[in-house]
Write a structure and sequence with these properties.
It contains 17 helices and 15 strands. With 470 residues, it is α/β, with parallel strands linked by helices.
Length: 470
């Protein structure tokens, strides 16, 4: 039996990943396909007049699928070409669902090629236990190397001892200091990288036999970096370079230009970027910044970053960059947008909201015959319902008073606590644009904390397990 042949129309950005989806989907569903790319960047910008002007339909095409956001009357196209035109889903990654193949294979995000150096800031001020705990935390969240950060202007006598302690605990170590006794003690104890090297310490740091990070004498003096690189090369000292990322308001854009210049003028040299000057010194959530920084590093072949988690808003930077480096590696390797790959860095809001709608909520409320409370958060309101009524509003305290008045005997202390907790989660979901599902944790990406549901708690306490959320 001849399989139907479908023509998929798309834009330039989506072509590669669309073909990848169709290569797997077509054999499963049983159709043949051809992809045509119109001269537009984004498929969602297509409209019927443009398609009429530019599209040529190959022979033997049974029907044509257009992007879901394509504008205009498709009957015009059907009449003109003599075959059916249909809109597909808004996103081509939803084509498996469209064709009844909802399961998508997980993306392989195991690959990355950007090393994370995680700095223990002001290590001399910490106890040994705090240093080990911080190093283990960084490693657990994706750090490849632990950077021991010393205090400028001081000389710490325990540098070598601390480096040995960390290495004995299984960590790879770099030392961040310009003080000679600290650096020499760290290297003697096994540190494999020195941050940093310029003309202030070039004469002695280049003779220690380990890799150094070469930096300009001052960030704006790029030419000094050339002189330092020349001397390190002459002495056979292994090195990577860091042109220095500057904070916003202090030469940020110019510093980005220096990284582009560094890659152009040192095409085969390893480069490092210290990202803390942006994440620590910009009062904003850091996940988005880390993705952009990882993308910049990936495209410029910058294979290491130095990060830290000092200020509270940057407290998950190491984990964020770990996810970001994998995401951008996947996107660039597969020539696809970093979208619909994984949602671990979509933390404040959720990727998509699934709502029942007014009619379905009213219908559900009319059918409930038990005292268990159902809570929903949608249409900019909280919705609470059981057999005694259906209450909705934006103030959890007012709602609580309303459904408590309907049946006061139904609310003991533990039950009231549960409902208050769930309404608090629901209100958070409404405020931030997150999906709320009763008895389940809100989704905070890779920071999501597991919860034991009320049903599981009742089972553990030997209570009636037939009822859902009260």
């Amino acid at each position: 039996m001849k399989q139907e042949r479908i023509l998929f129309v798309t834009g330039r950005l989506a072509e590669f990943s669309l073909r990848g989806v169709l290569d797997k989907l077509a054999p499963q569903v049983g159709f043949e396909f051809e992809v045509v790319v119109l001269n537009v960047q984004v498929a969602a910008l297509m409209h019927v007049p443009l398609i009429l002007r530019r599209l040529t339909v190959p022979p033997d095409t049974d029907w044509v699928m257009l992007p879901g956001l394509c504008k205009g009357d498709l009957q015009t196209l059907t009449d003109h070409f003599g075959i059916p035109f249909k809109r597909g889903p808004k996103d081509h990654f939803d084509l498996p669902e469209y064709f009844g193949q909802a399961d998508r294979p997980p993306k392989d995000l195991s690959r990355f090629d950007i090393e994370i150096l995680a700095e223990i800031n002001h290590a001399p001020f910490l106890t040994d236990e705090e240093i080990l705990r911080q190093a283990d935390h960084y490693r657990d969240n994706g750090a490849d190397l632990i950077d021991v950060g010393c205090v400028p202007g001081d000389s710490w006598s325990r540098t070598g001892e601390i480096v040995k302690m960390l290495i004995d605990a299984g960590h790879r170590i770099s030392i961040d200091s310009f003080e000679r006794t600290e650096v020499e003690a760290a290297v003697a104890s096994g540190a494999e990288l020195i941050l940093s090297c310029n003309h202030a310490n070039l004469d002695w740091v280049s003779k220690l036999g380990v890799e150094v990070v070469a930096i300009p004498d001052v960030p704006s003096d790029f030419e000094s970096l050339h002189a330092i690189v020349e001397e390190l090369t002459k002495q056979g000292t292994p090195f990577r370079i860091d042109p220095i990322l500057e904070p916003i308001g202090y030469g940020f854009a110019a510093s980005l230009e220096r990284y582009y210049r560094a890659r152009k003028e040192f095409p085969d040299t390893e480069i490092m970027m210290g990202i803390g000057n942006l994440t620590e010194l910009t009062e904003v959530d850091t996940a988005g910044m880390n993705v952009l920084l990882a993308a910049l590093c990936q495209e410029l072949k910058i294979h290491s970053v130095l990060a830290t988690e000092v200020i509270n808003w940057a407290r998950s930077t190491i984990g964020e960059f770990n996810h970001a480096r994998r995401l951008v590696k996947y996107a660039i390797d597969n020539q696809t947008l970093p979208k619909h790959v994984e949602y671990q860095l979509v933390m404040l809001r959720d990727p998509k909201l699934k709502e029942l709608g007014s009619e379905a909520l009213a219908n559900l409320a009319a059918q409930i015959r038990d005292p268990n409370y159902r809570i929903f958060a949608e249409e900019n309101a909280l919705h609470v319902m059981n057999r005694d009524g259906y209450w909705k509003g934006t103030d959890p305290f007012e709602l609580f008073d309303q459904f408590q008045a309907a049946n006061q005997k139904d609310l003991d202390a533990s039950h009231a606590f549960y409902l208050g907790y769930e309404m608090s989660k629901a209100m958070t979901a409404l405020t931030l644009g997150k999906q709320y599902k009763q008895d389940q944790p809100l989704n905070w990406g890779f920071l999501t904390q597991a919860e034991t549901s009320a049903l599981e708690r009742r089972r553990g306490q030997g209570e009636d397990t037939q009822c859902g959320p009260r």
